[in-house]
Hints:
Helices cover 52% and strands 11% of the residues. By secondary structure, it is α/β, with parallel strands linked by helices.
Amino acid sequence: MLNKNKSLILWISIIMLAVGFANMFKYSDSSNVRTVYFSEFVSSTERGLVSAVKLYGNHIYGDMKNGQKFLTIVPYQDKDLVSRLLSNKVHIQVSDVRENSLITWISIILSWLPSLLIIGMMMYSMKKMQGGPGKAVGFGKSKAKLVDFFNNKKVTFNDVAGSDEAKEELSEIVDFLKNKQKFSELGARIPKGVLLSGPPGTGKTLLARSVAGEANVPFFAVSGSDFIEMFAGVGASRVRDMFEQAKKQAPCIIFIDEIDALGAKRGSGLGGGYEEREQTLNQLLVEMDGFELNEGVIVLAATNRSGILDPALLRAGRFDRRVALSLPRLNEREQILKLHVKSIKFDEAISLSKIARGTPGFSGADLSNLINEAALLAGRRNKKIVSEEDLEEAKDKLLMGNKVKSKLTDAEKKLTAYHEAGHAIVALHSDNYYPIHKATIIPRGHALGVVVSLPEDDEMSVNKAKLLDQITVAMGGLAAEKIIFGEDYVTTGASSDIQKATDIARNMVSKWGMSSKIGYVNYTYSDDRYSSTSDDTYKNIDIAVRDIIDKCFATAYNLLSMHKDILHTLARKLIEVEEMSGDEIKQLLGMA
Ligand code: ADP
């Protein structure tokens, strides 16, 4: 409705402006009208040069016979005027003087109209920029959207898989919202703000919505960046407006996503638009302080950079409750997958725990995306039901990119097959390495092939033996190339293996205290210019890193040299079938 009125006003203004300008031009046309002396008019009439006149009071507008228009003013009541005109056969038209004055007024108004409109518009936009309580049409209005109130599907804790600690923490907030009375009678202060922090896609928004759903209260959602505008004061006015709206609906929840966009440490130079952002943040603090106790508005805010938030935001009475979310662990991933497969038609025989094992580092959003990708793939293959194969394919696509269409040459294929077979055989012979899930020489993204292994569980800490095995397996590809093709024919294909091995070895030496020569000192902070680390130590770190990798390479090389026969067997099979599962590899090599 408001928008309709706005556009109506705009159109009326445009039409009036156009009329005004046309009028201006009409006036400029009046330059054709010559103002003449009364005496000249009289003589022209008598000489028969005037064809017609219009009488407006004491003004005479006339046409000469030669087409020239003129205007003259009658100085006094000339009684003979009309008879003189008639005798000279001048056509006479008389206008009512009142009508004349009305026309004059309209002309004056129209001539001023463009200027008035321009001034009006300038004042309007200045007011708009300022926002403030008397703000014009919505510029300083909050962009907070009321979600889930009537129409949207209600989200509850059942829609959030895993995150049990977070749910437990937030169920307290649900209790506050539901039984406000109970707490206020006891004189307890209901918390005003909860900060949800964690990596993107870990379900912060989902949890906030589920709190509103559980408590059955309205949910206002807004993003921190919605407050930031080019014009000073707009953000602050939006914050004010948002709280006004929310208080009318209390008890309710305001959810501010990406609060770091407006709540970064003041004076840190983060977030841009310094003055404006600071004003907006101050307004938010003022509003949070200004809640009447137990008013029933609870602000939930989400960020994935809680470290940069202004301490003022986090102090008691503001966002003093914090809920940290992390990437889901193995069993949580399985629960999330279980929840999301409900929305698709899928083969019940699929082992979701295996998919969960193969997706370390995936967030809830990634997992939901994985299920959707699999359903899309199945659709493209005209299947009625999503199978394990679709899920595997979707996972590989998300992890490694799409299959590359370009064909490998036979030589490249052979080399890749020996390289991957090298990794696989070293992995199968290591005591501390993870079970192999599959080996493939179908190129994806930048990788020509890959051996995928599945950790049995998420690891919070890894021991030295496992790290050494990881380096040894990484070296397996390069070692196989060297054994089969010779020193001079190893390729650049091992660069990511070398990178991985170097990273692990360097951390072992300079961070995790796993080198007896370097000791239990953390040298990873010693890159700054105030570092007290001596050149000798740097040199020793380099030697120790090199030492670890050389030893692991030798292990892989010796192992593959000893098992050259199975290296050939596996590589040849890979060239033939291009992709093999862990079980198929073990069977082929008689290791099942
Ligand atoms: P964030 O706000 O932390 O970036 P969202 O709450 O927007 O993440 O999560 C995006 C989507 O990921 C959700 O809509 C949901 O489908 C899925 N998701 C994330 N975490 C979970 C979870 N714990 N359980 C179920 N689904 C989840």
